[in-house]
Amino acid sequence: RPLYDWVIRNCRLFPSRQMEFARLSLTYTVMSKRKLLELVQQKLVKGWDDPRMPTLCGLRRRGVPPAAIREFCERVGITKYDSLTDVALLEHCIRDDLNRTARRAMAVLDPLRVVIENAAGLPPSVQGVNNPEDPAAGARDIPFGPELFIERDDFAEVPPPKYFRLSPGTSVRLRNAGFLTCTGVEKDESGAVTAVRGTFTPMTERLKVKATLHWVAAHAAQPVDVRLYDRLFSVPEPDGDKNVDFKTHLNPDSLRSVQALVEPSLLEARPGDRFQFERIGYFCADPDSRPGAPVFNRTVTLKDSWKPA
Description:
- The protein is of the alpha+beta class.
- It is built from five helices and 16 strands.
């Protein structure tokens, strides 16, 4: 500060009050520009705008809304002492904002085929609310049919205790549609389940069920690339030990790419559009998207691990 004070005094400038504050530190990442540059130069990430990076361009590409960043900064505040902020608080702010603003859609990341046996009289489509938090968002038509895809882990041939999703002889609610009761399965030569068979019951029957599944109609399902981003490092303080190279803590599963099946409305997504894939998480269309072939980045999962103090 002596140089600062000398300039103020000799240039006859107004002696503004000085405040020094600590740099923001987040768990499961590094905030040092030198270390981030090292990740970029060694091609451990795909650039400064890699969605795993804590840069503004990285957060933007991941689909983080500006309002969520502002809310996070207000909650963290300013401190004069070094402290470590749980990244779960940032994720909480992101979920809170996207829950109000993101359009809902259905996508299946690991598909398992479902065959409806009583297919006669099935509706060709059902209506889904675009955002229950925003009535002005309206609704959309979702194709329906005698063959569907559900998530593979939403079915268990031999269910464990307290398993409320689909299993032989049980019923579940199909999101926006009706009820599905499992009557049997189809298997390949190795004994693996390749399809679930069941009967459909319209919502007017009001069956008592304990689980609701998302789905996509087989005849209308569209394949898209989905990038499942996770935390960049596998430990809360990757640079906490000065004697250990922080790069040894890189999370090998911080990016996993899958081809998902989605409802047709998602083909209209433009780069930057944000969605909630129901029961999965929040996603954003990536700049790599092309007309009719969107690519989606996972912004954050639905589960919130942050607990207020």
